[in-house]
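Sharing a chain and its predicted structure for anyone who wants a worked example. Both blocks are below, sequence first, tokens second.
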Amino acid sequence: MTHPQADTSPVKPVASEGAIGIYVHVPFCETKCPYCDFNTYAGVEQLIPAYVDAVCEEIDRWGNLLTGRSAATIFFGGGTPSYIPVRETACIVDRIGAAFPPADDAEITLEANPGDVTVSKAESWLRAGFNRVSMGVQSFDDGLLGTLGRRHDAAGARRSFELLREAGFENRSLDLMFGLPDQTLQQWQDSMTAALDLEPDHVSLYGLQLEAGTPLEADVRLGRITTPDEDLGADMYLAAEEAFADAGFRHYEISNWARPGFESRHNLIYWRNEPYLGIGPGAHSSLLGHRFADTRSPRWYMRSLGFEPGPSEDFPGIDTARPKRAPLPDSTPVPLRAMAENGPVDTVEETTLQLELADTMMMGLRLDTGVSDTDFQARFGRSLKDVFDLEIGELVDQGLLESDEHGIRLSDRGRLLGNEVFGRFVSAAHGI
């Protein structure tokens, strides 16, 4: 396939199409956990100033290309956003505010590790504009924290979470992990009890995924650590459903529970398949009728935006080879083409009907409300049963799906076998 010559005419801003979610990827950690396969790096703190300059430059460029947009939500993830200096995060928030003015009640989230939290830092985060903190506790068992390579203990996690309240945060979330090597059901129940005692507004509970290439996966594969028990993991998930329901939490998404009104508004943008912009190395976006992502390498991310990060020996573990970008789709709009040819965007994919159908079903069914037929028809011009009648009928018969005049949603059993359900709809969508 031949591709048209790059358009060198002045880039025109895109007309306003409303608010978007904005994600900022912070690729720095003090230490990297042995189960983590995210695009994160430890021991490269000297790159933080150039990284912040590059992020601010990317925000400015997008702001000039996407005039009229506003930030519905802002989410700093990683990596460990709480690890970098507060003044740096505050600078980035300010640049986002100038480029994509957020509403007065916009949700602005910072992911934090317990070891980074002090009252002074928490108060500074509030002054910078953050109004929600999501803390990665993972467990309240010190032995399991050691297995996970975490740099805090259970007592420190409790104190850090309380410090957020003392500083004035009124929206606090915490993460826990289950299905860990050698984790017992009693340990899991104890961690849930400890979490509930802290009165969080939101909790995210994740089953351990052993990702290929991570140290923890190697330890399990080589028999140095016990293989997690999948059946026990399912029992832990069911125990969580009961415990958090009894505590008044709404199980609004497969892995997330919230007190009424404290659902993660940023993550709801993903689950509702709404537009979002990712900033930073490896950050993904869904916008302008396309899915696209920035280059993963922090080194080449900075260079693509005009900042020289330093000699290659300053980049332990970071790719030093320039990534090769695939040809852009013919459909690539001018602003996105500009950020790919003279900026950090590395991969671009057109959001075809098949892809949009697949993502709408896969993400929407993660929610307790499922996929609304009214919303589906507004987006695609056809009803759910017009498109997926066979799949809906079979999954209802198998007890994995519930269906009524309003739409479809996972059954209790379907939540345990969600990937099987998602796979059916994804296969059907790509066959259309």
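Comments welcome. The CA atoms of residues 349 and 384 lie 25 Å apart.
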